[in-house]
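#dry-run=false #mode=assembly
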Amino acid sequence: MNVEFINPFLSSLLKVLATMADTKLVPGTPSIKNGDVALGDVSGMIGMIGPQTKGSMSITFDEALALDIMQRMLGERPAKINDEVTDMVGEITNMVTGGAKNLLGDKGYEFDMATPVVVTGKGHHLSHKCQGKTLLMPFSSPAGKAHIEVSFDTL
Amino acid sequence: MNVEFINPFLSSLLKVLATMADTKLVPGTPSIKNGDVALGDVSGMIGMIGPQTKGSMSITFDEALALDIMQRMLGERPAKINDEVTDMVGEITNMVTGGAKNLLGDKGYEFDMATPVVVTGKGHHLSHKCQGKTLLMPFSSPAGKAHIEVSFDTL
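#status=ok
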């Protein structure tokens, strides 16, 4: 899988969080995920299907970062991850994937998005079960870490 | 959402586990998931997109049940959930959704499947972020519990 296919997700996440939550994430170095455990506390994930390929994308946040984004977006900071936080993570997942869909569509890679599923649970771990490798993109911020994982079957 | 749309997933899971793993699950009573926490240790989830609707499906297993299915399918019981177990859960997710896709296709509801994502983490919790309600279908067995959650946008 070409890194060209993760950059639209990366730029879309930076833009969504800057616009919606006045939050600046610092991107780290993307890598091929190879058994290394990438842990998080709340993740949004979504399936993608197009004529050329299909795959899945996830965005994982540390709890502290998710709560910080919540506070910046809605003005209130819940004590812990609740339904409002998972709704927000689902919305962010939709917006980031929608932005990446537009950018990839411009390059001739069309896909449709399924609906997101949000996982909560301290230190959970995701495995994208594609034929292709999973690209892992870490982000850091003062409030905590985030990462995106993207995997497509045939890219 | 009509229960007609969860029955194909139910029957497909029973068939896949009986055929592949000689495992008999006892279905409980389906319900609309409404904030009740349905916890599990390993879950496979997948996105679905069709001309009439889109949505997501998940299958969640207790760790003990997942390890028992692994032993019955491959003859070896890992000490804990590892990559082979998550591969197996991803495969079961594909097979169950593929079976349901065929059954729903016969009723005129066509959809394509994305690729599965498998979550591990003690007592994690899933939220399907659809416009529609989430149908929850519990299963029991001597080795542990499982449940399916299905949500579609417009059914």
